[in-house]
Amino acid sequence: MGGYYGMLVLVGVTLSLTSIQCDVSCGGTNGQPGVNGAPGRDGLPGVKGEKGEPALMAAGPEDADVLLRLKGEVGSRGSQGDMGPKGYSGNLGAAGYPGNAGRPGPNGRSIGQGQHSHQQTHSAFSVMRTETSYPAYNQIVTYQDTVVNNPGHFNPAMGVFTCRIPGVYYFNFHSAAKVSVCLYIASDALTNKLGFCDYNKNYDQVLSGGVVLELTVGQKVWLESFRDQQTATDSRDNREKQIIFNGFLLF
């Protein structure tokens, strides 16, 4: 029994020596690298940095790219540019709603009494010319028929209305023909004559014109034919032509 125990102690000592010797002189193999770990979480935001120093212009040539990035001072307002061309006319809008009634006007003043006052506050005429010949150019148009001429301020043979009652008048004309017709409304109350023309060919055509004039006693109004783009054929046309001339006192 004692011999068996001694043998075990000897074997144990031998193994211990062998282990100590290998730790000192025997090298083991390197291990394999480990697997990467999962990404870590984002860190907290950092503290805001201090305000930087103002930029300084570097000496030497100016860099155009740098100048574009720098905000300059506001310049003075430039002068107004030329007006652009007129735009196209828009479409005619719908008619507006009627306006509110105006305030009553001042009381009128008396201008006379009885029948005499009535006769001196109206003037109206309507005359007609029907011919196959063309009205002579630059001549006052005359008339053969009188529809209205009250109280007789229009002279059909001369083709002229003469104002006898000062006031505001309305004059208009209508002509019908199958050739080009041009007519002036003329008056010594106008700086320039008012011209009206129609150039349709070979069709019944109606030319109209009108004007409101403020006349004093003695001023005259008449129609006058003139030539614009008419041809010699127009002046020789022998088809029927009609001109109606009207006028009356408004107030």
TrEMBL record:
Main subcellular location: secreted
InterPro entries attached to this UniProt entry: C1q_dom (IPR001073), Collagen/C1q_domain (IPR050392), Tumour_necrosis_fac-like_dom (IPR008983)
GO biological process: complement activation, classical pathway; innate immune response
Secreted as UniProt keyword: yes
UniProt-annotated location(s): Secreted, Extracellular space, Extracellular matrix
Keyword Lipid biosynthesis: no
Pfam name, any one: C1q
Gene3D superfamilies, alphabetized: 2.60.120.40
Biased composition (Low complexity): 94-122
Secretion signal, residue range per the UniProt entry: 1-22
Domain C1q residue range list: 118-251
Region of interest called Disordered, as start-end residue ranges on this chain: 93-122
Protein keywords: Complement pathway, Disulfide bond, Extracellular matrix, Glycoprotein, Hydroxylation, Immunity, Innate immunity, Repeat, Secreted, Signal
GO cellular component, one term: collagen trimer
PROSITE patterns, alphabetized: C1Q
Protein name: Complement C1q A chain
